[in-house]
Amino acid sequence: MASASERSGRSGPPADPDALGEPRPLEPRDLPAATHAIARAFAWYEPWGGWALPDASDREERLHRLIEADVRERFLPFGECWTIGGATTTLWIPPIGSAPGTEAFARRRGEAEYASFGDRGEAMRAGDELIASLRPAEQHWYLDTIATAPELFGRGLAGRLLEHDLAIRDTAGDLCALDTHTPRQISFYERHGFSVVGEGALGDELQVVMMVRRPGGSGESQGRSAE
After folding, report:
1. CA torsion sign, 120 to 80 to 210 to 135?
2. Which residues, at least 6 apart from 158, have a Cβ–Cβ distance to it below 8 Å?
């Protein structure tokens, strides 16, 4: 089977992670590499991609259009975005109201974006409502996205970038939260100090797990809610 990068017709980032440099703020010049890497990862290796867009024939292209617009219009101007060479990227949502423009994140998606998912639009809305209901009531930073170009999976880039980001949040004394789906993902975040605080299901197809992390790597595990 062709790799995601071959499927999309792009060559991907360098094979040597050390050549990508250190974590730094995402810049407009990084968008082609970063948004294509996110789209490839979510289209083919993340359960949410196949759930949101069951038609594989144009999944990656549709995801890329949505991701590129979201990063350009909301995350770059109003969020906090970090990258290692465009190959691994994190997209953070600040606490709503903590800075001008953060109100752009008060709703995860607009009506036009829901409509773009076609028959999945209402399921997407239900998923966003479920996630909103599971998020902490306290002000928090939300890790909306972390993704690595598939050809660099397993090289430690995601962990290195997440450690960088969490060091910043720890210095500021910030609570962090995120949602995820699989046991492997849960274990990854637990190694970085997150704990499960709740979960819910979107039909029989997708499990949503909410995790939180207090400054210094302390979670607040309350066990998982009933499936």
Report:
1. negative
2. 88, 146, 147, 148, 188
77 to each of 47, 169, 184, how far by Cα in Å?
A: 28, 19, 32
Nearest one of 26, 29, 46 to 149, comparing CA atoms: 46
CATH class of 23-213: alpha beta
Residue 222: how many other CB atoms lie within 10 Å: 11
Sheet of 88-93, strand order: 24-25, 80-84, 88-93, 141-148, 176-180, 206-213, 195-202
**Each residue's pLDDT tens digit, 181-207:** 999 999 999 999 999 999 999 878 899
**DSSP 8-state symbol, 221:** -
Domain ranges for the chain, please list them: 23-213
Query: What is the pTM for the complete model shown?
Result: 0.89
Query: What is the average pLDDT value for the chain, to the nearest integer?
Result: 89
Sign of the dihedral through C-alpha 107, 113, 117, 119 = positive
